[in-house]
Amino acid sequence: MTALPPASEAGTPRWLLPRTAHAANPALVLAGFVVAGFAIGLSQQGAAGVILDQTSDLGTAVDTLGWTIVAYALGVVVGAPLLMVGLAGWNRRRLLLTMSGFFVVTAAATALAPNVQTLMAIRFLNGLPHGALLGTATYVGVLALGPERRGQAIATLMYGLTAAAVIGVPGMQWLSVHAGWRVAYAVVTAVGLLGFVLMWAFAPSVPGSPGGGFRGDLAALRGKVLWTAILTVTVGFAGLGAVQSYIVPLLEETNGFSSTAVTVILVLFGLGMTAGAFLGGRLTDRSVLLTSRVGIIGVAATLLLLGLVGTLGWPVVVALVLLGACIQTFSQAAQAHLMDATHTSPSLGAALAHSALNAATVLGTGLGAIVIAGGLGFVAPAWVALGLALVAVALVFVGPGYRR
Do 11 and 91 contact (CB within 8 A), yes or no? Predict the structure, then answer.
């Protein structure tokens, strides 16, 4: 049952809240969020698809450009908690539109970056609204579908990110090869603008936290359960950052696939992520704890498989598809668990989930850049990620908040 407010705040001008948003339709509300998530997924995940074109255009190396991916993820890590706590009292519609507008502007600036140093700074700025935007969208989406269907609400919003993996990342890789990486980011900007328009048209007016501000929401950041959950997501999800950030050179340079074959493989990888999001959403509605355990054990197993077959050609593709499915299954449960851990401010918990997921990207991509720079090859990040995933496996069985 929906818990969305039935009408706008009194006195709100029509141009700020159009008629379509007064009695919000849950499907249309979620549609705007999915498109915005798709744009964010293109910007974040698509960086891996354009990395080889950037090396030639900007005159730098793959491991150096890996740090631009880290910069984006750091922006999410920093932006999600600061913006959600600092703007806790804001109406959620206003927060959604502000974050979406900032994302569009910085996505456009990405396409114009003249050198790798400027690109790194812009990517950090582009990541700042990521967690606040998707965290707020998750909270409003759960209100739209009802708390009893929160797993499906989270999964629906994640379809935007997984659609980016299926269509967007291969598409950006194809555009990068045929038109240049700057054109690819121009497309990101256009999709982000469409998401902004849809949210303006359909996102309802949802009040912020009563008495919101630093003092109110900082109280939600206490306790072993919350910080164990954040640590579990960070070390458990690091495998995706470690592998996906260098997936194109892994496939092309280590395994000899053509750029056309890589496009197809990226689609398959995205389909695996989509299947994991679908399965994880439904399993999460049954048991958050069981889904967390099944998902993270699957992540560890597929990282082990990837490390063993990382130079064998098509077996790598099988391992990548399975990794995508397992990581997204774990992701759905992890986000729901974080919302539970911050029950006094569930929108903050949803934003912290994205902060933790991107802290994982920082960890995985950064360690991947280090081992690649050390001459260990593009398979080595999978072994690093496996070690981190095993820590997460232990946490979901004995960590505070996971024991029951």
Answer: no
Structural domain contains residue 163 = yes
- Give residues with Cβ within 8 angstroms of 173, minimum separation 6: 46, 49, 50, 248, 259, 262, 263, 266
List Cβ neighbours of 111 (8 Å cut-off, separation of 6 or more): 182, 183, 185, 186, 188, 189
What range does the domain containing 99 cover?
21-398
Query: How sure is the predictor about 7, in pLDDT bands with cuts at 50, 70 and 90?
Result: very low
Residue 188 maps to a domain: yes
Would you say residue 16 lies in a domain?
no
- Report how far residue 352's alpha carbon sits from residue 359's, in angstroms, rounded to the nearest whole number: 10
Domain total of the chain: 1
Whether 35 and 198 have beta carbons less than 8 Å apart is answered as: yes
Kindly list the distances between the CA atom of residue 164 and the CA atoms of 40, 44, 170, 172, 344, in Å, as whole numbers in the listed order. 8, 9, 9, 10, 32
Note the pLDDT tens digit of each residue in 181-239.
Answer: 888 899 999 999 999 999 888 888 777 765 545 455 555 556 677 777 778 888 877 87
Instruction: Give CA–CA dist 358/401, Å, rounded.
Output: 22
As given in the structure block, the two tokens for residue 42 are 């293109």
- Report yes or no: 285 and 296 within 8 Å, Cβ to Cβ: no
- Round to whole Å and give the CA distance between 145 and 151: 10
Q: Give the pTM.
A: 0.70
Angstrom distances, CA of residue 341 to CA of 7, 232, 353, 359: 30, 13, 11, 18
Domain harbouring 343, CATH code: 1.20.1250.20
| Residue 403 within a domain | no
Q: Which two tokens stand for residue 112?
A: 């114009």
